[in-house]
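Lecture 7 notes. Example A: sequence first, then its structure tokens.
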Amino acid sequence: MRIQAIIEDKLQALEPTFLTVENESHMHSVPANSETHFKVTLVSSRFQGLMPVKRHQQIYSLLADELSGPVHALALHLYTPEEWQARGEDRPASPNCRGGGA
């Protein structure tokens, strides 16, 4: 199973109302077809009342195996349904890679 699919499956534990996992590896200095850099946007009522650090800790716990191995970077955009709606259901764009050559 591809890393992206594993991440998507594991994040179902948070009962998301919206989930997108984007492989952004192509934007970085890595070999073609890599699965090392991901952007996660997840909306869940389970984040209600939690500070951002606690939300991130939930993700890190679920994805511990991937973060200790193939995943090098994980951008997290985590919202409650109300926060997501207030943002106009929009997430920040990813910055360009500032790394070195491949």
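Example B, a different protein, same format:
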Amino acid sequence: MITNGAIDRAVVGWINDGSGKSSVKNTLAVLVRVMEQAKRDGLRTDNPAQVRGWQKLYAQIEDELDDPRSLALPDWSTLVTLANALVARSADEYQGWGDVVTFAACTASRIGEVSGCRVGDIDTATWTWTVRRQTTPGPDGLDDKGTKGNRRRYVPLIEEVRQLVLDRIALVGEDNTDARLFVGPRGGRIATGVLRDATHWDEVVTKLGYEHLRRHDLRHTGLTWMADAGVSLHLLQKIAGHADSRTTERYLHPDRREVTDAGDKLSNHLRSRSGPALRVVG
């Protein structure tokens, strides 16, 4: 079950979660030895853990994460245009491709997480989605045993995607709690590579003027929009599932007016009776 693609996705996930270079290197070293033993035992013919070029990938992702806001879509209209264009460019014009993109952006989630979303994970009373840890092993790619702590997070479902969710639930049946809501036209799981190939992603985003846009950048879009909407740092960190608040801080964009106001508030505090004594020099 361990493939080159699974290893690549794992490495990207570790880097995005803030793991250091030494952690990635040491983890891969152990996995390489395990896979080498599997080859010697005749269990497989290759070693997918021998990943090359991950240091370059690490530097690239670090650079992007320094300013993730620059990778976000500018507005809702652009997101809708992108989703519709991907559907129109696909061979089957399957609406599910657009739904996955829209849902991922509005919930600041990864494509793999969206594809793992099940009926039972949606609470329509509070309009929240329980995002569970995604794993490669297993027929459904979902591991419910390891969802403690920051491996499980809760994401709000805004009004713009609620009808989409209800339509998806109606398709599979609300009593079928284990049914996945977002699947491919043949009912299979939607991986980021599948989405790219089926919708001619690279061609579409280039035509729209966003040639830099990757599937993972939909997550940057959601987090940027939430930050601009005034979602507090600690809550944004919980929604994103970031272990380090410094990662979340990169999505914040304090307005200059807010900075000026902060200065005025401090001045007023210094001059107030309850504030520290202000000594005028000169």
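Note on Example B: Residues 21-40 form the longest helix (20 residues). Confidence is low (pLDDT under 50) at residues 135-150.
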